[in-house]
Amino acid sequence: MHNPYDDPAVAALYDTFNPWAPCDDFYLDLVMDAPAALDAGCGTGLLLRTARAHGHTGHLVGLDPADAMLDIARSHTRDVHWTRGDLATHTWNGGFDLVTMTGHAFQELLTDTTTVQALTAMRTALNPGGLIAFETRNITARAWERWTPDHPWTGTLPDGRTVTDTHDARPITPQGLVTFTSTTTDADGHEILSTVSTLRFLATDHLDTLLAAAGLTVAERHGTWDRTPLTPASPEVITLARPA
Ligand SMILES: C[S@@+](CC[C@H](N)C(=O)[O-])C[C@H]1O[C@@H](n2cnc3c(N)ncnc32)[C@H](O)[C@@H]1O
């Protein structure tokens, strides 16, 4: 499956459009409490490099299949173990008190089979008493319907230039897949980059079936980053899970 994050041009723009946010505060608290943490789909590594900068002295591993993203992580610090790889195809034998999958990376798992493989991998990476934490956008809030050219995102590059990102999403498929084009333009409206991505939206009861198939049980479930309960209107389905 094509991974758009393998493209250095995509990786170079990632932090501009994904700056520190309340989701990162949520996960940072969990990482700071965990002696050893694995961030699967770590991307440019913002979560773990911030944990290190905040004084985390334990074992921090960031895993991602996209070298272009890891190159950015490495350019910030070598004081985190950045590893290239796919969560589901690594062999794990404990070692971590926390496994995270943040920034909606979980939605890049496009089938039941890959999702159960990934969740199983997260479970097998845990030490006894460990926790996994991830979020997926709430399917009932239908975020993709607002991924249209009339809802642009604007960001500022490190050199001060302004860039704009617009999405153009196709309708959701019966399998819950949403494919969208993401187009980045400069201040003059010239196209810098255009990518096509697919994400999966899962009904929460289906997610819970997949968690159970992976030997996991829900420990906490929230609908927003300030831990409000999940409702049909909640933007996120935030899950903390433990081995069943
Ligand atoms: C939207 S980015 C999120 C990055 C980071 N977690 C954040 O919050 O900024 C999704 C990342 O997941 C990675 N990814 C996709 N499939 C993966 C898999 N099977 N295992 C691990 N990482 C994966 C991509 O390469 C990409 O860097």
Automatic annotation (TrEMBL):
<dbReference type="InterPro" id="IPR041698">
    <property type="entry name" value="Methyltransf_25"/>
</dbReference>
<dbReference type="InterPro" id="IPR029063">
    <property type="entry name" value="SAM-dependent_MTases_sf"/>
</dbReference>
<keyword id="KW-0808">Transferase</keyword>
<feature type="domain" description="Methyltransferase">
    <location>
        <begin position="38"/>
        <end position="130"/>
    </location>
</feature>
<protein>
    <submittedName>
        <fullName>Class I SAM-dependent methyltransferase</fullName>
    </submittedName>
</protein>
<dbReference type="Pfam" id="PF13649">
    <property type="entry name" value="Methyltransf_25"/>
</dbReference>
<keyword id="KW-0489">Methyltransferase</keyword>
<dbReference type="GO" id="GO:0032259">
    <property type="term" value="P:methylation"/>
</dbReference>
<dbReference type="GO" id="GO:0008168">
    <property type="term" value="F:methyltransferase activity"/>
</dbReference>
